[in-house]
Design a protein that fits this description.
Blueprint lengths: L41 E5 L5 E5 L6 E4 L7 E7 L5 E8 L2 E8 L5 E6 L3 E6 L5 E7 L4 E7 L4 E8 L2 E5 L5 E6 L3 E6 L4 E6 L8 E3 L2 E5 L3 E5 L5 E6 L3 E6 L5 E7 L4 E3 L7 E3 L3 E5 L5 E5 L5 E4 L6 E6 L6 E7 L2 E4 L4 E2 L1 H6 L4 H7 L9 E8 L2 E8 L6 E4 L3 E4 L2
Antiparallel strand pairs: 1-2, 1-34, 2-3, 4-5, 5-6, 6-7, 8-9, 9-10, 10-11, 12-13, 13-14, 14-15, 16-17, 17-18, 18-19, 20-21, 21-24, 22-23, 24-25, 26-27, 27-28, 28-29, 30-31, 31-32, 32-33
């Protein structure tokens, strides 16, 4: 089994692209089976044959949404629309690159052409627009895809590029390049720009304001410029807040010993460990004494899934923090696709897809456990996961 790297990176990098092409839209029949979402929700999976399928949490009610077919298309990173009515994914085939939106109960599928492979997409909370990243001649290109008209517009190009939608979906904030934080409306028009630091990945827009790092301080800043200092941080910081904006999971890496928390002057955050800061009280909870590869909040904002390297550094150990208790599960070797494409940039992906079921009682792992490989569902109150499908990618419906 190969050794895993630290997987913490600072940029969504890629090769230069060819000249841009105009968007185009094609329509094909939807899946023949009706898809309904109940209970914990459903999983969108790229299976072992390269198909995109939707399944229940126990692996049943399997519906094929897209298949490579005679054209030999390759599909990547399926995600759900905010209301769970559509699944979308990146696609490459003989006709070039496209981003596809499939309404699971509608009568059409939109395939929008891109000049280069759209390697990341993030639905706005309203479900009307997708922010899409691809490679370009001068850096990472940020485009907005309007769902209704299936049209795209190039908004910006910079490397690295990370962004977050406003809770209402009427704007977005981008960490573009090393030190620029740009506010835009939902059409991509720039409204303001400010400073930010290079040593973090994605900003996060909460109801209370925008979380980002400025001069080694994690701050919560409103679009009007009012800011609260959350914590002093190190040269490389990763953070993810729960969607309720009540708690922030923070990991800051440094050779020093500790960092102070501005919300509670007496508290300190240890470097090279994962902690949670309560925004209202400033209280600090240590979740993992060591470096975590990735961490993801449950939909209810009460549980944090932590993935950390085991002692031999060839597997990941899942751990769930739930306030008063922390439970550890058996190790697994993650899918190479997630190691390459997701984990190095997890603060961005934590905003656009879910490892958690809608009821916050289960999470999904993709990789190998023992001799079996595929998509595993782990109920938080159970000891062992269940294998529900072969595959290299999975995302849970809202």
């Amino acid at each position: 089994m190969p050794r895993l790297t630290s997987m913490l990176a600072l940029a969504l990098l890629g090769a230069a692209c060819t000249a841009e092409t105009a968007p185009s839209t094609t329509t094909t029949p939807p899946p023949t089976s009706t898809i309904t979402t109940t209970g914990p929700g459903r999983l969108a999976v790229v299976d072992d044959d390269g198909n995109i399928v939707v399944i229940d949490a126990d692996g049943s009610n399997r519906v094929e949404v897209a298949a490579p077919g005679a054209g030999g298309q390759t599909f990547g990173q399926p995600i759900w629309s905010p209301d769970g009515s559509s699944v979308s994914w990146a696609q490459v085939g003989p006709d070039g690159f496209a981003y596809v939106i499939q309404g699971l109960e509608s009568e059409s599928r939109s395939e929008v052409a891109f000049a280069q492979y759209p390697f990341y997409a993030y639905w706005s909370p309203t479900g009307e627009t997708l922010g899409v990243l691809r490679n370009g001649e001068t850096g990472v290109v940020f485009e907005l895809l309007k769902v209704g008209g299936a049209t795209t517009s190039v908004v910006d190009s910079e490397t690295p590029y990370y962004f977050s939608w406003s809770p209402e979906g009427d704007g977005l904030v981008a960490h573009a390049g090393a030190g620029v934080l740009t506010n835009r409306d939902d059409s991509g028009i720039e409204e303001s720009s400010g400073r930010t630091s290079a040593g973090y990945l994605a900003p996060q827009w909460l109801e209370q304001g925008i979380l980002h790092v400025d001069e080694e301080e994690l701050v919560l800043e409103t679009p009007a410029g009012d800011r609260t200092e959350v914590a002093e941080v190190g040269e490389l910081t990763t953070f993810v807040a729960n969607r309720q904006g009540t708690k922030i999971a923070i990991q800051t890496l440094s050779s020093d010993d500790a960092v102070s928390v501005s919300l509670a002057a007496a508290a300190t955050i240890p470097f090279n460990s994962l902690v949670i800061v309560d925004i209202a009280t400033g209280e600090v909870f240590t979740v993992h004494d060591g470096r975590a590869v990735a961490f993801f909040w449950s939909p209810n904002g009460e549980s944090l899934l932590v993935l950390a390297l085991n002692d031999s550094r060839d597997s990941l150990v899942p751990r769930v923090w739930r306030g008063e208790e922390s439970k550890e599960y058996g190790p697994y070797a993650p899918s190479p696709v997630q190691v390459r494409d997701l984990f190095p940039f997890f603060p961005q992906y934590a905003q656009s897809l879910s490892f958690w079921s809608a009821d916050s009682m289960s999470f999904v792992l993709v990789g190998a456990i023992g001799a079996e490989s595929g998509v595993w569902v782990q109920d938080v109150d159970e000891t062992d996961p269940r294998l529900v499908s072969g595959g290299s990618w999975a995302a849970w419906s809202p």
